[in-house]
Design goal:
Strand content: 15-25%
CATH architecture: 3-Layer(aba) Sandwich
Low-confidence stretches: none
CATH class: Alpha Beta
Shape: globular
Number of helices: 5
Order of helices and strands: HEEHEHEHHE
Oligomer: single chain
Number of domains: 1
Radius of gyration: 15 Å
Helix content: 25-40%
Structural class: alpha/beta
CATH superfamily: Glycogen Phosphorylase B
Length: 129
């Protein structure tokens, strides 16, 4: 999904960087050659925060699309260190209620609490239908 979106944005005339906390998996081969891949070199999304802050300061993108819950939270924190720039769009690739089905009350409370806290810092949300 993200590779198709990136390719479409390049086709529309935008410069697109695909910023990856961890650059691994079968989807790497599907990334269009016109999309610049930025590897933050982190083992975990949450530990990519310093590298993402450096990237945002150096490149100054007009917008940032963060895909997945943890990436959205890290992007919100990185944006705090960049005085609210760039525009931030969060994309949830799962139905939250389905992802939390069968989880304990504590896990559900923590997930929704994190969303309420962090998602205030997002300009727009894109959700699956």
């Amino acid at each position: 999904m993200i590779t198709h979106l990136a390719d479409g944005m390049v086709e529309a005339g935008f410069q697109v960087d695909l910023v990856l906390a961890k650059a691994r998996g079968e989807h790497l081969a599907a990334i269009p050659s016109r999309v610049r891949v930025i590897r933050l070199g982190s083992r975990h999304t949450l530990t990519s925060l310093p590298a993402l802050i450096r990237y945002l300061r150096r490149e100054r993108p007009a917008a940032l699309l963060a895909a997945k819950d943890r990436a959205i939270k890290v992007a919100v924190l990185a944006r705090l260190f960049n005085r609210g720039a760039p525009r931030l769009v969060g994309r949830l690739g799962t139905t939250v209620s389905a992802a939390l089905d069968g989880r304990s009350r504590l896990k559900r409370w923590m997930w929704f609490g994190g969303m309420r806290l962090f998602y205030r810092g997002v300009d727009s949300i894109v959700a699956v239908s």
